[in-house]
Design goal:
- 44% of the residues lie in helices and 14% in strands.
- Helix 1 links the parallel strand 1 and strand 2.
- It has 14 helices and nine strands.
- Strands 3-2-1-4-8 form a five-stranded mixed β-sheet, with helices on both faces. Strands 5, 6, 7 and 9 form a four-stranded mixed β-sheet that branches.
- Keywords: Glycosyltransferase, Transferase.
- Its EC number is 2.4.-.-.
């Protein structure tokens, strides 16, 4: 390994003793040696720390940091501070890198100029790209970020490469108050703002092949738990949608999926919030100027979501009911979807 490796691969570890060996092996098997794998033992109460130490004994590219429990955001921030590599890649403890991920990402970074590099993820290992030569990026200019949103990669830090020095110089860190698994998007929004302000002509080189394996069967994952509404959920979408429209000048007709995902996520927050707290949530959410602005933009540009009318009417009970149907057999969800289009009239753009 060079004095300064090309990559630092950052993996927060908490109750991960059953996952980390497979995660580390997916990195070791890359056939690309210019990296360090930084394991942050976040005060795990099981034997995860010992497992990490044993892996480091066997492979000098693995480095372990033990710290008091600070949550995934605290662990990620510790990794940013400690990283020795030129580029930072995030890899969750229960996920894996696809067989050619590091080679493909490194090749894209070496030829991208000021552009950023992103790639695709999948939950089926058989779909992972195994030939780096096939992983040829497509460039998205800033005004095309609405199209990029349709790839499903915008929200996640583990589908992007981050220049380490730039993160430190601009003090870009994770918000450690967010502990429900929605910390990625605020970090991405802050990073993009800083990067594209300094590099106004830059875009994103997007690799459409699957390079990151996302484990969807881990019941302990934070993403599999209910996520009651928090102000940060609204803030992250308000910031993203505002930046797309005003900073990157994305045409409104390319924003359909972003608006749809915004209301879908907020509806999930309502559904996850106990019924006794919804009256307070209704006042909090519906009087928020950012939420009013999102609904106004959707109405102005005719961006459709089945949650648009229930939110506009302040019917949070109906929002929760429709999301419950979405999580189930979806009969009422699709009935409401079609009814909403009928009530609103022609010309509304649909995400799918």
């Amino acid at each position: 390994m060079a004095e300064r490796p090309f990559f630092t691969i950052l993996t927060p570890v908490y109750k991960g003793m059953d996952f980390v060996p497979g995660c580390a092996e997916s990195v070791r098997a890359q056939g690309f040696d210019d990296y360090e794998h930084l394991l942050i033992d976040d005060g795990s109460p099981d034997q995860s720390g010992e497992v990490c130490d044993a892996l480091a004994v066997k492979d000098s590219r693995i480095r372990v940091i033990h710290q008091k429990n600070a949550g995934v955001t605290g662990a990620r921030n510790a990794g940013i501070a400690a990283a020795k590599g030129r580029y930072l890649l995030f890899l969750d403890q229960d996920d894996c890198l696809g067989p050619c991920a590091l080679r493909a990402i490194a090749a894209a970074l070496r030829s991208c100029g000021e552009d950023l590099v992103s790639w695709r993820h999948h939950g089926n290992w058989e779909e992972m790209c195994a030939d780096a030569a096939l992983a040829v990026p497509t460039r998205y200019a800033q005004e095309d970020f609405g199209k990029l949103y349709y790839t499903g990669t915008v929200h996640y830090v583990w589908t992007k490469a981050f220049p380490v020095d730039f993160l430190r110089e601009n003090n870009i860190r994770f918000d450690e108050s967010i502990q429900d698994g929605t910390d990625d998007l605020p970090f991405v929004v802050a990073f993009w703002r800083a990067w594209f302000s300094e590099h106004p002509g830059a875009g994103i080189q997007y690799i459409s092949q699957f390079l990151y394996y996302y484990e969807i069967g881990n019941e302990a994952s934070v993403s599999n738990r209910l996520q009651p509404f928090l102000p940060s959920h609204l803030a992250m979408f308000s910031d993203l949608l505002t930046d797309f429209l005003q900073r990157y000048h994305v045409p409104p007709d390319q924003m359909t999926m972003a608006f749809y995902q915004c209301l879908h996520t907020l509806a999930y927050g309502v559904y996850s919030t106990p019924r006794a707290r919804r009256r307070a949530l209704r006042a909090q959410l519906l009087e928020d100027g950012r939420f009013k602005a999102i609904l106004a933009e959707m109405g102005r540009h005719r961006q459709y979501s089945p949650f648009y009318l229930p939110f506009r009417l302040g019917a949070l009970g109906l929002v929760s009911f429709l999301f419950r149907s979405y999580e189930g057999r979806r009969w009422w969800f699709w009935k409401a979807y079609r009814l909403g289009l009928l009530l609103l009239g022609k010309g509304w753009q649909q995400a799918f």
